[in-house]
């Protein structure tokens, strides 16, 4: 079962339209990790499940989200409320208290997929304003594949192509 994770479009609404149109009906859920700079009532959020970012002005966005289905549990938040620009320590504490399988955030614009405290932390990077060593890709999102014995994270570029070398497997 696949899940889309995308973040930090910062007003680039069209790329979100393109990605959502591409994945609608092909993934079980779509997570949007904040800083769209759009209204909560934008029709994009009929498909994308959002949280509030530090650059979002619509107070109707939730601070965070606890997601669960038959396959796994996930905690979603932008990151500024737990200061992920400094470290993941506060987010780790929240995730540990919740006991979720997967944690996803945005905010730093730096992509990442790593196992910490026995759970998977995913930052899809920014689809519009990437930073870090993969900024040259021009923007990324992630597809999380959830299987009974493993998680697979594959990062994609704006033209919806998988990036060689940015596929990670984590045992459950
Ligand atoms: Mn941002």
UniProtKB/TrEMBL annotation:
Family designation: Belongs to the metallophosphoesterase superfamily. YfcE family.
Organism: Weissella cibaria
Swiss-Prot/TrEMBL keywords: Hydrolase, Metal-binding
Keyword Metal-binding: yes
Entries under InterPro entries matching the protein: Calcineurin-like_PHP_lpxH (IPR024654), Metallo-depent_PP-like (IPR029052), PdiEstase_YfcE_CS (IPR020935), Phosphodiesterase_MJ0936/Vps29 (IPR000979)
Protein name per the record: Phosphoesterase
Pfam families reported for this sequence: Metallophos_2
Cofactor: a divalent metal cation
One of the record's GO molecular function terms: metal ion binding
EC assignment: 3.1.4.-
The Calcineurin-like phosphoesterase domain, residue ranges: 1-147
């Amino acid at each position: 079962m696949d899940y889309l994770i995308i973040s930090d479009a910062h007003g680039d609404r069209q790329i979100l339209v393109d990605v959502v149109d591409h994945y609608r009906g092909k993934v079980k859920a779509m997570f949007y990790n904040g800083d769209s700079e759009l209204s909560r009532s934008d029709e994009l959020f009929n498909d994308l499940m959002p949280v509030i970012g530090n650059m979002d002005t619509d107070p109707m966005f939730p601070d965070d989200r606890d997601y669960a289905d038959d396959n796994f549990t996930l905690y979603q938040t932008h990151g500024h409320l737990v200061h992920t620009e400094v470290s993941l320590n506060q987010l780790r504490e929240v995730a540990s208290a919740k006991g979720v399988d997967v944690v996803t955030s945005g905010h730093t614009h730096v992509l990442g997929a790593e196992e910490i405290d026995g759970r998977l932390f995913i930052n899809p990077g920014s689809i519009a304003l990437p930073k870090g060593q993969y900024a040259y890709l021009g923007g990324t999102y992630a597809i999380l594949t959830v299987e009974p014995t493993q998680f697979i994270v594959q990062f994609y570029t704006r033209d919806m192509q998988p990036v060689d070398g940015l596929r990670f497997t984590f045992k459950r």
